[in-house]
User: Fold this.
Amino acid sequence: MPTSPIDSPPSTIAALFSEGGIQLDATATDRLDAVSQAGTLLVQHGAVEPTYVGSMLRRETSVSTYVGNGVAMPHGTIAGKHAVHRDALSLLRFREGVDWNGETVHLVIGIAAHGGAHIAMLARLADVLLDRATVDRILAATSTDEVLAAFAAREPADDASTAVR
Assistant:
């Protein structure tokens, strides 16, 4: 019996971004506006139901999703998992930065993960985004292709057949 896309997660982080799911010149009034925008991108690309955005906002108001290096990774609560259709990411780059409880955030990665996949996805993303050189490369990118290349360059090299080219 073939597996569904939900049962077979994408093999690379870059594969989790939909076309149009990366915005390089975003602006936000505050962190909750930034979280809402990240969730809205996930909705627009069919990864989640609109109710998932509320779940992301609830998580952010209870626990900050700031992870360091000017990066935040908002995601929904466990109760919001029913609103996820497929694993996906959105990325917003805020050149001016957004105040995140006293930290300045320039990259917001919205996360939608079906089932228990969010833990592995968070770990993979953290490995990539806690590398300052990779974050700097994303901040300097002039195109979505350059952003995707920055993620691909940090992917594990154990299976060259799944690397994004």
